[in-house]
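Example record

The entry below shows one chain as it appears in the dataset: sequence first, then structure tokens.
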Amino acid sequence: MPANDEPRFRGRPAASPPSTSGGAEAAADKADPQDILKRGTRARRVWITLSCLFYFMAIIFLILVEVGNTGGGPIRDDLYFFKLDLSDIIVKALPPGQLVLTNSIARTLGLHDFYQVGLWSFCEGYEDSGITYCSEPSSMFWFNPVEVLLNELLAGASIALPSQVNDVLTILRIASHIMFGFFLASAALNFILMLAAPVVVYSRIWSGPFSILALVSTILVLVASSLGTAMSYAFKFAMNSQPDLNVNVEVGMKMLGFMWVATGFTLLAFVIHAGLCCCCTSRRDIKTGRRGAWTGVRARGEKGSYKLPNFNRVDRTAPPSA
């Protein structure tokens, strides 16, 4: 080396600032998989919780329908499909010697002022004292007004019931039997679906069977509610077809309201389960990577490509700088 030449040193490249993206990737790689599963399935869990709430509300209203008109309290006494009012009935014939009418015409004949019908039994009573008797609750119950009234009439008394009542008796019997079975089955099925619904968060495969069961429950309660509504109004029209008899029939709007509210909640739960068949990421989707799985683990670039860190390599084959 000549004396006048200064020593040459290889320049050391300046250190590049630390990459923020690399730190984010490292932090993401260290993320807890359980936290990622929870974040990814949050929407699905919210909808499942909402469906359980709808099932719970439907069960409450179905229980009220089941226990309505069974006696034992003012709430149950006000729940009935229809109420038959005979307090002002016009008499066709009176018992011998019965010339004075006290309180109501029905009492003169040995009848009660009103009869109200529920799913399990019927109750009867007087306007001034309320319900005095309820029949024993029985499965597959149906109200036969002709049989009940004829059994309570005093000897020698008679009333002229409309001929349409006999025609509607078959409808009453069939509708009552179907309603009893469908309401009970729907309440039991809703209870099972409410308890088992959290399973749907694990895989969308479970949403298919749940949707089918939810549809069956919806059909059951919908048919039962429709039959209850049709039966109540059919009996009302049959009794009111002869206005000279002066018999009034009141449809129980509370009972009908509870039935249709339960139907609405069950329908909403079915819609949720049907939507979960194709929407909202499940735990299985995240683990298999089919539905945006592990998106929080790596930072993605454009068009789905991964960003690689910049290592700032030094070209050692280049001649040293002067």
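Notes for this example: The chain has ten helices and five strands. The radius of gyration is 37 Å.
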